[in-house]
Design a protein that fits this description.
Layout: H1 9-17, E1 23-27, E2 42-45, H2 55-62, E3 68-74, H3 83-90, E4 97-100, H4 102-109, E5 114-119, E6 129-133
Length: 138
């Protein structure tokens, strides 16, 4: 048995194979999981039921395991989705959310450096987050 918040074997395996610059998408339940992602990315489906598992639950388990260099989120002009504040509370201090409009976000997730898609049952809209793995500081 593993200790820590993240014990999912497929996620851990993919993280172990990823490196600096690799990207991880944690997607909400509305995301087009099969068409708007790098076709070579590992896909892990945690979308058991609407509302289970949430994007923030996955993010809370993932963040202690990896250094984070950058974060992109899907958004639109106007009011900021409430989940962005939740992201800021979970992410390391000082990381800015780079907001991309929907089709620019889809294009970013189709790039070859996206190594992992984690599908959730998150019901909030614009709850998609693309994390770039950074380097471990010595």
């Amino acid at each position: 048995m593993l200790r820590g918040k993240l014990i999912h074997p497929e996620i851990l395996e993919t993280l172990g194979r990823s490196g600096h610059g690799s990207k991880i998408l944690i997607a909400d339940g509305n995301y087009p999981f099969t068409t708007a992602v790098n076709p070579l990315a590992k896909k892990v489906y945690l979308n058991l039921s609407p509302g289970l598992i949430s994007v923030t639950q996955v993010l809370e388990a993932l963040i202690p395991c990896i250094p984070v260099e950058a974060v992109q989120v899907m958004g639109k002009e106007g009011a900021e989705p409430s989940i962005f504040q939740d992201f800021r509370q979970i992410l390391p201090v000082g990381l800015e959310l780079e907001v991309l409009e929907r089709f620019a976000f889809y294009a970013a997730v189709r790039e070859p450096d996206v190594a992992l898609l984690i599908a959730t049952g998150e019901e909030r809209i614009y709850a998609n987050i693309l994390i770039t793995i950074g380097v471990i500081q010595s």
